[in-house]
C-alpha cells in the first residue's frame, strides 16, 4: 500500500470537496466543545514557579465554562509526583484533554532519549484521562537550518513518537511552530505527505497566519486528518507575542470553525494565547473576551 500517495490524493480530494465550505457563516447548532490551553498564565515546564501557575489557569478556565484544558505533560508529571494533580482536577471539575510536548527529531544523539520521554509523557497523559498529545519539533537555528538534510530523521521521529502514543490509545499530531524544525508551509506539506497513519495534523492557526500562510487553506487541505487545533488569533502588535484574543486579529476564525464543524471527524479545539508581560488584559479577562466572541458564533459553555 502506497501510504504517501494515498494521503496526497486524500488531501487533493478533500480540498476540492471542501471548497464550498469557506463561504459558510450562518452555522447550524455548534457541536464542538471548546477547551483552553494554560500558557497564558505562564504555565511552562521551566521551574516550580511556572508549574505552580497551573492552578490559577484551571481556576480561570473552569470559571468561564470551557470544556477542558491542555498543558505540558511535564507540568502534569510535576503535580503527579507531589500527589496533587487529581485533587486539583477534581477541585475545578475541568477534564484534561491533551498534552503538548517537544519531540527532538533532528539530533541522532537525542532521538533515543526523546522517544523515552514520549513514552513517559504518554503514560501521564493517559493516567489523567487525556486523549491526545500535540507534537512540536525541537527548536533550530533557522538561518542555518537545512530542512532537506533533516527530512528523513524528522519523519522517522514523528512516526516513532506517534506510534508510541497510539500504543497508549492516544492520538497525536504535528504542530508547526515558528523557530522549530517544521515552521513553513512547504515543510508542513512535505512531512505530512510522508508520515505514517498515526501522525495527524494539529495546527496553530494563529501561527500559520503569523508565518505568512493562509490558515483557512491549510485547514481545508488537511481537514480529513485534523483532529486537534490551537485556535489563536494574530494581529502583530506588541503584546502576547503578536497574538490577541479571538476576533481581534487577522485570522478568519468563523471560516475555520465552520469547516471543522462541517467535517465528519471529531476535533478538539483548544483556545490559546501566549503570555504577555504588562498585557492590556489579565489572563482571566482574555478568557472572558474570547468566550464572549465564541458565544456570538453560537458556542455553548458549561454552566
Distinctive features:
disordered N terminus, eight-stranded parallel beta sheet, TIM Barrel, 303 residues, alpha/beta, 44% helix, globular
Sum this structure up briefly:
With 303 residues, the protein is an alpha/beta fold.
Describe the structure.
The protein is an alpha/beta fold and 303 residues long. It has one domain (3-10, 32-296): TIM Barrel, CATH 3.20.20. It contains 12 helices and 10 strands. An 8-stranded parallel sheet has the order 6-5-4-3-2-1-10-7. It has a two-stranded antiparallel ribbon with strand order 8-9. Helix 8 (185-192) links the parallel strand 5 (171-174) and strand 6. Helix 1 (3-17) packs across helix 10, helix 4 crosses helix 6 (108-127) and helix 6 packs parallel to helix 7. The longest helix has 21 residues, at 147-167. It starts with a helix and ends in a 7-residue tail after the last helix. The model is unreliable at 1-5 and 10-25 (pLDDT under 50).
